[in-house]
Amino acid sequence: xxxxxxxxxxxxxxxxxxxxxxxxxxxxxxxxxxxxxxxxxxxxxxxxxxxxxxxxxxxxxxxxxxxxxxxxxxxxxxxxxxxxxxxxxxxxxxxxxxxxxxxxxxxxxxxxxxxxxxxxxxxxxxxxxxxxxxxxxxxxxxxxxxxxxxxxxxxxxxxxxxxxxxxxxxxxxxxxxxxxxxxxxxxxxxxxxxxxxxxxxxxxxxxxxxxxxxxxxxxxxxxxxxxxxxxxxxxxxxxxxxxxxxxxxxxxxxxxxxxxxxxxxxxxxxxxxxxxxxxxxxxxxxxxxxxxxx
Length: 294
Hints:
Strand content: 5-15%
Distance between the termini: 43 Å
Low-confidence stretches: none
C-alpha cells in the first residue's frame, strides 16, 4: 500500500504517522484493517475508510500521551513519516519502559475487572437488567490483564488464540476462569449470526464510524474458517469496549439492554451470574497479589 500517497491525500503531511495494530505484527488476517496513527494531537474519534481495497482505521493521537493503555498501542509501531524525529524519540521511551507499561496496564485492567464484578453484584441486588453485561466486561478485563502480564497487546481478533498458546503458570492458569465465564462454549453459527447483528447495531449507536463493516468482515472470516470460539470472543470484546464508553449513561438509556442481551449473549440466571462474578473477583485478587510481589 502506498502510505505516502495516503498521507498526502488525507492532509497528514505535517504530522508524524505510523502503522500499528496486528498488520504490523506476525499475527494478522487478510480482513484485519491497517491502524494508521496520526500524531496531530487532535481530539477526534477514529475514522474508518477504505483505500486500495483495504480497511484503514485512522487514529488521531498525541506525542504527549501518558496512559499505559494508549502508549502500548504504539509498541513496535512502524514509522511512515517522522521528519522531526519526535515519534522516534517517543517509541524509544516506550521501548525502555515496555515492561513497566504492561505491568501498569495489567494492574489497571484487574482493578477494572474488580469494579465490574462489584457492579454485577449491585445490579443483581437491585434487579438491574445490565448485571450480565457488567459480568461479561469483568471477564474480558481479566483476559486483558493476563494478556498484558504476558506482554501481549489487546487485539480482540487474535487474543483468544494468543491466550491458548501461553505457557502454564500460576497466573496463566486463571485463563480457565475467563473461558468459563465468557461463554465461548456456546458458540454456534446461528448464535453468532444473531450476536453479529446486535453487535453491529450497538457499534453503530455508540461509535457511529462504520466500524460495523469491519465487524461484519471479521465475523465472515471466522465463520469461513470454522473459528467459532474466536468469533464469539471477538464479538463480546467489541461489545465490552463499546459498553464501557456508555456505562455512565446507562440509566438514561434502559432500552439498550434489548440489543445487549443478544450482542453479549447474556446469562439470565442471577445465581450463576453471582458465581461467575465471584470467580472473576477471586482470580483478579490472586493475580494482583502475585504481581505486587514481583
